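Appendix B. Extra example for self-study. Work through it before the problem class; the solution is given directly after the inputs so you can check yourself.
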Amino acid sequence: MPELPEVETVRRVLHDSLLNKRISNIDILYSPIIENDDSTFKENIIGKEIIDIKRYGKYLIFCLNKGYILSHLRMEGKYYYLNEKLENLAHIHVIYHFSDGTYLYYKDVRKFGRMEYIEDDIYHSKSLSKMGPDLILSDIDINSIYQKIHKSDKEIKSLLLDQTIVAGLGNIYVDEVLFKAKISPLKKGKEITRKNTSQLILASKEILSNAIIHKGTTIKSYTSSLGVEGNYQNFLQVHTKNICPNCKIALNRVKIKGRMTYYCKECQR
DNA sequence: GTTGACACCTGGACGC
DNA sequence: TGCGTCCAGGTGTCAA
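Solution. Structure tokens for the complete assembly:
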């Protein structure tokens, strides 16, 4: 499932391919993917040029010469940029046609992904305005994060997955961050200290930056675009693993907020 | 305001 | 072999 490093990898690939392309047509094959109504989406985008592609948290932001397309890949969304028409349109839900005869295909087996046209003020839109600071792009105010975490009775894993606190972490990297910071995923927010918060932010930045260098993690369903695959799965310490790489005991597996969680009960207190 | 349950969705794994 | 059931998970919505 695409988390911050995977979305950043997709952004970089698409940025290299799509800059200054003019959108000449759009096929919407599955409407629920689009947050606007289909005609509004098409009317506002056809004829526009892509002038930049940005990212905030797990969102991709296609900047047009007027307006934006906000795209969230959720579980299995993928983009494919091709010079020719695809024969097999299985699981393809949106097709962007460009004036130079190329295409951008959006494929999403589980149909969880979402796209939205936003006229202006993208960072104050319904989706982005609630987001916490991006763990790579933003200056993180440790004290403000600590205040949000410390007042909660929820487990720290659950809080780190909450995009309104910090933006970018998903299930895989939260396990890795907690392992690196030596903090149990079951620890309650109110038990987390300022020092813990600092350790968590530092571990997050380090792990996410490293994962971006390795083009993200390829587990089952994620590929960025144009067949680019990440290899950070080779560097995972606990997620989907059986043995703690540090103390060599069996890792614990529990469900937190419905998410499978891997941790070492000896190393993570 | 906070929290938990549920819906969305489909391929793959598993048991019978 | 074929069928039914369960699981995976990011986010929004709704009820308590």
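Self-check: The helical segments of chain A are 4-18, 38-45, 142-150, 156-161, 171-180, 194-213. If your reasoning did not lead you there, revisit section 3.
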